[in-house]
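The instructor's notes for this session suggest beginning with a concrete chain rather than abstract definitions. Hand out the sequence below and ask the class to guess, before any prediction is shown, which regions might be ordered.
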Amino acid sequence: MSKITKIEVQKRNKERVNLFLDGEYAFSISAELVYKEGLKISSEIDEEKVKSIAKSENYIKCKESALRIIERNLKTEKEVREKLKLKGYDDNSIEKSIEFLKEYNFVNDRAYTKAFVNDKLKTMGSQKIKYSLIQKGIAKEVIEEELSNLNKENERNIALNIAKKKLSTIKKTENDNYKISGKLYRFLVSKGYGSDIVNGVVKEVMSLEEF
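After discussion, reveal the predicted structure:
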């Protein structure tokens, strides 16, 4: 059993304190944890209590790190989890931190999916959007539900505009209609558009052009 003999606020970080046991520096912890654990000078703590404090301290650090990860832009649960793992936090602290973020809606995979789809629809097809979201750890049912709300005609019009711009680039180095059509087809497929949209768009674009 050890006795807390001094609790010293750090000079460079007022949110952290140095804890002294039996007259010697033992470790530093967050001021938040001192309050939560009810730590006071002359309080006695055993080895199990020290381990418990260390566990709680690791969670607080993990949570703070998670908040920094999401402060610049939206992240999925998977993205936050992977970044925290790379920083070396234990699984328990990571999952508790994720739950904290979800509780306060700082991480919301459904909201992320909606925002991602609305943004990426300007430059890519639904198939590529779906693949990208799967890679980010979004549940397939969430992806399918959001993509089911897409206006197919709107997606086709976007593909048509993209195809027209690409066509002008292709024509600079190619004048064979068959080859132009093939390159345009492969380009649209690479952008994530389905064959139903690609076939129709390529046919329309080629019919509008005079070579």
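Then share the key points. Residues 81 and 95 are 8 Å apart (CA to CA). The chain has a mean pLDDT of 93.
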